[in-house]
Amino acid sequence: AVVSTQSTGVQLLRLLAVLGKCDAEASEQMNDVLAQVATNTETSKNVGNAILYQTVLTIMDIDAESGLRVLAVNILGRFLLNSDKNIRYVALNTLLRTVHIDKAAVQRHRNTIIECLGDVDISIQKRAMELLFALLNTNNVRSVIGELVKFLSDNAPPELKSRLTSTIIISADKYAPSKRWYMDTVLKVLIHGGQYCRDDVVNSITQSISESPEMYAFIVQKLFLAVKEDIGQQPLVQVATWAIGEYGDLLVAGPCDIGEPIEISETEVVDVLEHIITGSLCSSTTKYFTLNALMKLSTRFKTEADRIQ
Fold first, then answer.
1. How do residues 207-266 score in pLDDT, each as one tens digit?
2. Contacts 24+ apart (CB under 8 A), 221-228
3. Contacts of range 149-154, beta carbons closer than 8 Å, 24 or more positions apart
4. Are 215 and 187 spatial neighbours (Cβ–Cβ below 8 Å)?
């Protein structure tokens, strides 16, 4: 069979998809033909891209052999490198719809998908983000979540940040290689996108912290340093003030292992909490968290007890 024109070729390929669907014998007879079309079609013109795209859809619709499915995924991977944003979008959309068929084949194009996060088109960024979430597993969680957190902090548009923050936290919990990595990831999400977190995130994070006694000092110090720089993100400030109220004695006890050793005084902690309460950036809920923290610290901070009261 020679595919010579776009309309004829696409129609023939659609017919093959209908004939081969749920028919293993018919699909087997089509494998060689589809492999030839996928391998020999010229892609320098739009007609070739249209035929190749329909070839991919046909392969994914029939009971194709695994090697042919890999070839189809590789075609979509090449589409991701195309200068035409419409072709890139179509490729991402199709990969997202077919990733459940052969996830391992799609994984080979993960780096190219990550590059799509840097696209200026939000629709391409969104599809790349969703595809990366679909590819997550215990083996790649460190690298993929790392790229998604970088996307959150660098160039993710506001429209995507709510979905991005919530799904990073859920995925980090599901695939975490260690509790330390999970907590570190969650804190990064709070720092870079806390204002976009769902309302239930604060409770889930404080619960996770309370179940990690070996990391109390690390967590409270990291949260304190973050909120000292930024009190505009309410979930971040709420988690931080809760942690300071619970583990403030560890905060001033001495340096922990989060980088350069630093000394934090009781006065410095109370100054930050006072700034939160008296400032106009924080909500009433956040100020309630802060007042609770101060009440708890009033019995543990000896040098600042009178000032707190």
1. 999 999 999 998 999 999 999 998 988 999 999 999 999 999 888 876 665 555 678 888
2. 221/250, 221/251, 221/255, 221/256, 221/258, 221/262, 221/264, 222/187, 222/258, 223/187, 223/190, 224/251, 224/264, 224/269, 224/272, 225/262, 226/187, 226/190, 226/191, 227/272, 227/276, 228/272
3. 149/185, 149/188, 149/189, 149/192, 151/117, 151/125, 152/189, 152/192, 152/193, 153/188, 153/192, 153/193
4. no
pLDDT-based confidence at residue 2 (cuts at 50, 70, 90): very low
Question: The tokens of 188 are what?
Answer: 């990064």
pLDDT digits (tens, 9 = 90+) for 265-282: 888 998 999 999 988 888
Question: How far is the C-alpha of 285 from the C-alpha of 270, rounded, in Å?
Answer: 18
Using the 8-state DSSP alphabet, how is residue 62 labeled? T
pTM (2 d.p.): 0.86
3-class secondary-structure state, position 234: helix
Total Cβ atoms within 10 A of residue 105: 21
